[in-house]
Amino acid sequence: MRWDNLSDHPAATTADAALFGADAVTTRTFDTPEFRGITFHEVRARSVLNRVPGASRMPFEWTVNPYRGCTHACVYCFARKTHSYLDLDTGLGFDSQIVVKVNAPELLRRQLASPRWQGAHVAMGTNVDCYQRAEGRYRLMPGIIAALRDHANPFSILTKGTLILRDLDLLLQAAEVTDVGISVSVGFTDQELWRTVEPGTPAPERRLDVVRTLTDHGIGCGVLMAPVIPFLGDHPDQLRATVRAVAASGATSVTPLVLHLRPGAREWFMAWLGRYHPHLTRRYERLYADGAYAPKWYQRRITRQVHELADEFGIGPARGGGSRRLAVPSRAPEPRPSDQGPTQLTLL
Ligand code: SF4
């Protein structure tokens, strides 16, 4: 395993080499049902604020990611590729070999206090989910949010984890002094699809309960409707059911994002497709023939449908009038012409 390559961003691996030393790694397993089969690699990071390469394409420039790998185990997760930089497996290894930056809270507090830090927005949940199950044990996020609160530093969180509600009081405190944006990812409400394609995540309804709770407490919360999965989650009735449920949760916005299949995720997803929906394999090969993204006509169609449904169900800024702070700008980046190049937003 290559512990000198723990940067979140492939383009930054040279600059960030030696962020960790091999002597700083402790490997643990826990014999509880929740963590059976999971290996945790605890590391002491030397830096926790990551600058996003090519940030002009993204609505944020700085990220904090206390974990690598994700037990939520979404088949389509394109952060899978980042496990290969550690010489770890991007399939089951991504789901079960979790790197934990155990000193992330103290390190962030120190870095925020540096005279060189200008107080830029910090985005979390952009690589892997910071409220995945491991967070229940390691409890890194309370210290991270407290550090951001104490420095009145604006931040946003994108998550599928209901565990975020554990930190509701801290989020409310932070929202008193700075901009806090929360976005929850719910690509569909289809139960069967959820169980097979996002096997480690809380159910979509539970995630929408998070939206409702945050909104009820005055923290505006948007929904990133991601991914919309072609031929499995894109039927008009499915889109309608999802947007209706999103509206009922009180979300301030809904932003659709069609599945994309970059290297690392593509192989894993296509193997899954071959097992569960083999009749769709050829259709996928045609739809994604040009690379990681579905054709623009398809993306535009989904976006238009979702926006029309959002209008019909009354999702929009007017619904968020009671929010204390802004919802996270969860707008997805425009499709890139090639599969390469760093893009940090996962399909959380
Ligand atoms: S898509 Fe998000 S929640 Fe799912 S495995 Fe990837 S990082 Fe985790």
UniProtKB/TrEMBL annotation:
Region of interest (Disordered), ranges: 313-348
Lineage: superkingdom: Bacteria
InterPro entries hit by this protein: MJ0683-like, rSAM, rSAM_sf
Keywords: Iron, Iron-sulfur, Metal-binding
Residue stretches making up the Radical SAM core domain: 56-305
Zinc-finger recorded as keyword: no
Keyword match Repeat: no
One MF term in the entry's GO annotations: iron-sulfur cluster binding
Signal peptide feature range: none
Pfam families for this protein: Radical_SAM (PF04055)
NCBIfam families: rSAM_Rv2578c
Protein name as catalogued: Radical SAM protein
